[in-house]
Design goal:
Largest sheet: 5 strands, mixed
Number of strands: 5
Distance between the termini: 31 Å
Oligomer: single chain
Strand order of the largest sheet: 4-1-3-2-5
Length: 155
């Protein structure tokens, strides 16, 4: 079954941005827990990066499950100003371990991921120092330290 993915950036709603970053049990945790329950049934996995004001979310799964999960994202009141960075087919799941999880990141890291090249979800082998990393490479580098813990809760 082909795996498709979508990645977007958006601005957090005022009530989410106003809460302390990293606070457990808040609205963001509830939203992510709800998404994880839904995504598990839809076969969707992914991660939500949050810098306290903006999001970058990467989601992957079968076409039908991803379409329904992404339509929930598009209708959510938890964010606005959504900009889709890329959508398409991926050769394999890159984040098979979480139905959804949010991770705190620094604003500079989030801007770098959002501004990177997401064309085709490319990952290059042996990137040279003169080549800028792709969005997927940056995302995987941020996620990697957390992959030992398959929890859907906040870090």
């Amino acid at each position: 079954m082909p795996i498709r993915a979508v990645v977007y950036t958006s601005e957090a709603a005022a009530d989410i941005a106003a809460s302390r970053l990293g606070q457990t049990g808040g609205r963001l945790c509830g939203i992510v827990d709800d998404a994880a329950r839904f995504n598990r049934d839809a076969g969707v996995t992914g991660v939500l990066l949050f810098d306290g004001a903006r999001f970058v979310q990467y989601m992957e799964g079968p076409d039908d499950g991803l379409q329904v999960a992404y339509s929930r994202v598009l209708g959510a009141s938890s964010h606005g100003g959504l900009i889709e960075l890329q959508r398409g087919r991926v050769g394999q799941r890159w984040l098979p371990f979480w139905p959804m999880r949010w991770l705190p990141v620094e604003p500079t890291e989030l801007r770098r991921v959002a501004g990177a090249d997401w064309t085709g979800f490319v990952q290059r082998e042996g990137t040279g120092a003169s080549t800028s990393p792709t969005g997927m490479e940056l995302l995987r580098a941020l996620v990697e330290p957390y992959t030992a813990s398959p929890s859907t809760e906040s870090p």
